Amino acid sequence: MEVGIGSSARGFLVAGLQGEMGVKADGIYGPMTVAAVRALQDKFKMQRTGRITQGLCAVAGLTWPSVFLRCLNLTSQFEGTGYDRAVGPADTGDSAGVTFGIVGFTSYNGELQRLLRIYAGSNPMTFEAEVGRAFGAGGGAAFRATLEGGDNKALGAFGLDSGGRVKGAVALFFQRLGGMLTFQALQVHEARRRYWLLADGQARQLWADPTPREFALMFDVAVQNGGLKELEISDFLAASDEHDVVGEMAWRVVKALHVRLTKKRRPAGIINDCLGRKRAIVAGHGMVHGREWWVDSFGV
Questions:
Q1: First vs last C-alpha separation in the chain
Q2: Which residues of the chain are under the pLDDT cut of 50?
Q3: What interhelical angle do 230-239 and 248-263 show, nearest 10?
Q4: Cβ-Cβ contacts under 8 Å for 284 (sequence gap 6 or more)
């Protein structure tokens, strides 16, 4: 089957394609979107699959997204924070502080602070206006202080309540900022810089000609797990030969992550979430966050 985006897909890519077709851009690939795609396929005498493919985009004048954007869209749906949602440890079950945005940028490793500093530098008037609106003069000074210096825990201390949830004013600040196209574009840029370059390089170490599914696996590993270790890659390559069955290398990646997370004694919920995502990508479908996912509908 040709790689395509279809029924059950969600996210910003779906919304963008819906907008190009004149369908309500709600980001959910439902019956109305399927009907619009089939109408285009009828017009161009193509098979009525209801799926958007590169071939359909070429004849219908739609934008076929790059493999990076397709992988980003899938992982962003796993993360569940979109462009504009901030969550805390009570929601994620981890100790990453404030987690926000398209790939779940976190405060405890400084990703979120970097994102905000870049935006403040390139859009100072907008940033200051939103800080003032959300926190007022006194709170704004305290918020700005969390973005400077080397204490990555400061933003979490400022933004989280005693129950580990994001405070209302902080959540609203990120919601407003995340709704701005300029801030969305910055998130995509940082996701490419920080995670895609790593994922692309490691995928090409493991496979001579990676498929979109293999890129998707390595991108999710980069975002959620910081990529593979060089020793893991060396072990994979040493164990591989011409007799490997299709998909065997991908399952080695999943097994290695299981070993790594178990050795670190990560909570069972985090291990299950991580492995559920990776298994769904490799197998093409699976349960993640209590929902069944069909990964090939995301164009990978």
A1: 11
A2: 243
A3: 140
A4: 213, 294, 295, 296
